[in-house]
Design goal:
Structural class: mainly alpha
Radius of gyration: 25 Å
Number of helices: 14
Number of strands: 2
CATH topology: ABC transporter involved in vitamin B12 uptake, BtuC
Shape: globular
Strand content: under 5%
Length: 360
């Protein structure tokens, strides 16, 4: 019965269940190590923080599905946050709805630049985005001349947006930022899993040559993946501005590592072709929970926090590789069993003919 039950669960569902189990274990562990750990304040803080990293990670997951990676997202978030903050500060009468639209459009432009270089010239995405990570950050430094955006220069509606509650349950406050991020993640999940255009990202990542033979424009699909990643990084830049208000030239630094961590830990295959946005949501929550908890855990110094994240990413990659090999071996075993069964079935049929041949 156990084997039957396990065979009915897809590999993606197994990863999600395993992630939920690890998330619960992590919460239980830190609740025994940190005094007054389980409270509404922890939920409010982590959910708001996850809202930003989730948007970046969802865009990153679309890129990773196509066998690529976008290391420039942190610089895109920082640039968009500073640029949009400067525009809003200079033109406070600008309609509020246009501000996130501007952020998304600017981020999409950065993503299109990355996508053009990768898809048009067939360049390794890790090299391209590592270069644009530095280029975009350098442009930001030159553009700002080292100055900062302050909360005082921003309109009240923008600085208050990060504290707006969609609904409240007791002491638990669910911000509009959180609702928007989850809705975006669900929309991308439905697009990837239910629409043919979305399934093309999986096809390109699984086997680019087979996808090309099937009539899929691989270059255009890769381009679209980077545009989506840039657009969501732009939206995250708007939320970053709303949450922190004070934006410097180092804004968004390190978010690329967190986004890759959330994607890999969330079960998206780093070699492309498989994964789920739902897993990315849980992965982003787990990484932010670890980071927040390690800050409060006196036994671990701040210098080891990034090391813990790195070890978590490494463990996730090793686990995913092991599971992938097991899943690839499973069809082979089934095929061998089917062949054996076919041979056993054919043997009695062939036997009379053999005996007749012997008699003659």
């Amino acid at each position: 019965m156990r084997n039957t039950f396990m065979s009915r669960i897809s590999p993606t569902s197994m990863r999600i269940l395993a992630l939920l189990f690890v998330l619960i274990l992590t919460i239980l562990f830190f609740s025994t190590q940190i005094e007054n750990y389980l409270n509404a304040r922890l939920f409010n803080r982590i959910s708001t923080s996850v809202a930003i990293i989730l948007l970046i990670a969802v865009g990153q997951s679309v890129v990773v599905l196509t066998r690529n990676i976008d290391l420039s997202v942190g610089s895109v978030v920082g640039f968009v946050a500073y640029f949009v903050g400067g525009v809003v500060g200079a033109f406070p009468e600008i309609p509020a709805i246009l501000v996130p639209v501007l952020a998304i459009a600017l981020g999409a432009c950065f993503g299109a630049f990355n996508g053009f270089l990768v898809s048009r010239f067939n360049l390794p995405s890790i090299i391209v985005t590592l270069a644009t990570l530095a280029i975009f950050r350098s442009i930001l430094v030159e553009f700002t001349d080292g100055s900062s955006i302050t909360t005082a220069s921003l309109p009240d509606w923008l600085t208050e947006f990060a504290r707006l509650n969609a609904f409240v349950v007791g002491n638990f406050r669910v911000r509009w930022m959180v609702v928007i991020s989850i809705v975006v993640a669900l929309v991308v999940h439905v697009f990837l899993t239910r629409f043919r255009a979305g399934r093309q990202f999986y096809a390109v990542g699984s086997n680019p040559e087979a996808a090309r033979v099937a009539g899929i424009n691989v270059g255009r699909t890769v381009m679209q993946a980077f545009v989506i990643s840039g657009a969501l990084a732009g939206l995250a830049g708007f939320m970053f501005l709303a949450r922190f208000g004070n934006i410097t030239i180092v804004a968004g630094l390190g978010l690329e590592l967190k986004s890759v961590g959330a994607v890999v830990v969330g079960g998206v295959n780093i070699f492309g072709g498989s994964g789920s946005v739902i897993g990315v949501l849980i992965g982003a929550s787990l990484i932010d929970l670890l980071e927040t908890s390690l800050v409060r855990w006196a036994l671990v110094s701040e210098f080891w926090r990034d090391a813990v994240l790195g070890m978590l990413i490494l463990l996730a990659v090793v686990t995913d590789t092991f599971m992938s090999r097991r899943l690839l071996a499973r069809p082979t075993a089934k095929a061998a069993a089917a062949k054996t069964a076919a041979d056993n079935t054919a043997a009695p049929i062939a036997a009379p003919g053999a005996r007749q041949a012997e008699g003659s």
